[in-house]
Design a protein that fits this description.
The chain is mainly α. The protein is built from eleven helices and no strands. The protein has one domain. It is globular and about 55 Å long.
């Protein structure tokens, strides 16, 4: 029963961060509403894999490494911010893409697995583009991990993190891939894409700026 309390503490603390809007939410939401439910869920799975990767890195002591080598942390933040900004620019530039083509893409996505894999990798890349998340994970773990936590507890923590990330973003994908949101998106595609692109660019530039200030 004792190990359950720190596990619940970790889950509760991270859940607040998971449901907070950010680049991951924007990416999954746009994938689900503009492409298909399958690709939205694939992106959500990518988020879960990314969260598990951060959890493993945090448990392995990545926080100590990044604090010991500040230049590495700055480099990772700048690279992640530039990736998010680049992704936002791509979304913005595609805002005027014909609506018929968007519909055709959704139909094509049901034909095979490459689209699923692409969405999964895009979700994973978006998730791991922000190294600040690794610091957040490490801080939460430092606050809640029991002093003598073993391998079994570490595995449980990684599983909980992956489940949290995947579950939340799957709910987002399922909700926004319904016919109503998709029809609304197709009607206002240019505006929605420009807004999503602007958000991604601003979040990316904010991350780059924080790296510069560091």
């Amino acid at each position: 029963m004792q190990p359950l309390l720190p596990l619940l503490g970790i889950a509760g603390a991270l859940a607040v961060g998971v449901v907070s809007p950010g680049p991951s939410f924007v990416m999954v939401a746009r994938t689900a509403v503009s492409l298909s439910r399958t690709e939205g869920v694939a992106a959500a799975i990518g988020m879960g894999i990314g969260g598990a990767s951060f959890a493993i890195a945090a448990l392995a002591g990545l926080q100590g490494l990044l604090l010991a080598i500040p230049q590495l942390y700055v480099l990772l933040k700048a690279a992640g911010g530039l990736y998010l900004a680049w992704l936002g620019v791509r979304i913005w530039l595609g805002a005027k893409q014909p609506l018929a083509l968007a519909t055709a893409q959704r139909a094509a996505s049901a034909e095979g697995h490459p689209h699923f894999a692409r969405a999964l990798l895009a979700g994973l890349a978006t998730q791991i583009s922000n190294p600040k998340t690794a610091i957040v994970y490490a801080s939460v773990f430092a606050a809640f991990l029991p002093p003598a936590s073993g391998l079994g507890f570490g595995i449980a923590v990684v599983a909980v993190v992956s489940l949290l990330e995947t579950s939340w973003y799957t709910l987002v994908a399922l909700a926004l891939s319904a016919r109503g949101p998709q029809q609304t998106y197709l009607r206002y595609k240019a505006w929605v894409d420009r807004a999503a692109g602007a958000v991604m660019v601003s979040l990316g530039l904010k991350l780059v700026a924080s790296a510069y200030r560091a």
